[in-house]
Design a protein that fits this description.
Blueprint: E1 3-4, E2 7-12, E3 27-34, E4 37-44, E5 50-57, E6 62-63, E7 68-69, E8 79-82, E9 86-94, H1 95-100, E10 106-114, E11 120-128
Antiparallel strand pairs: 1-3, 2-11, 3-4, 4-9, 5-8, 5-10, 6-7, 10-11
Length: 152
């Protein structure tokens, strides 16, 4: 099971009205750690769709051994529609590779989006990937058996 850690700093509706999360979209941005792999998750935990979802990071995030600017991918610039209870998870890097390439560990992600009535929302999340540096995990060894059990 992936461990998730995100601290929400701000959440505001420009109208400053109190709303129940069941009445609107609620988009969060998380860094997931799963068996030594990092993913960036954009997740609508609300019960209504989110439209025009965009994510900005405070620092460049290079994955794949430091060779690819993951933070600049188009997926973070404009998700036209993210349904309720839907998640998009983008592979970032293997954790050992991420740390070896000296990528930032303290990051801020700001997500902005609207609901179908064009009400705007934004939220800011602090992340500290350093908490994952010393975690151990099990890597499965490849099996000598074929899937069907038959020799080919």
């Amino acid at each position: 099971m992936a461990q998730r850690k995100a601290q929400r700093i701000t959440r505001k509706n420009p109208d400053q009205t109190v709303e129940h999360s069941s009445d609107r979209p609620d988009v969060i941005v998380e860094f997931l750690f799963d068996h030594g792999l990092f993913f960036i998750s954009v997740n609508n935990i609300g019960n209504q769709p989110a439209v025009g979802v965009s994510v900005e990071f405070d620092k460049k995030i290079a994955g794949l051994g430091g060779t690819k600017d993951i933070s600049a991918l188009p997926i973070f610039k404009g998700i036209d529609f993210l349904g309720p209870k839907r998640e998009i998870a983008v592979f970032l890097d293997a954790s050992d590779s991420y740390f070896q390439s000296k990528q930032p560990t303290k990051l801020v992600a700001r997500v902005s989006y609207s609901d179908r009535e064009k009400r705007k929302y934004e939220a800011t999340f602090n992340h500290d990937l350093e908490i994952y540096r010393e975690l151990t995990y099990v890597v499965s060894a490849p099996s000598d058996k074929t899937d069907s059990g038959c020799a080919h």
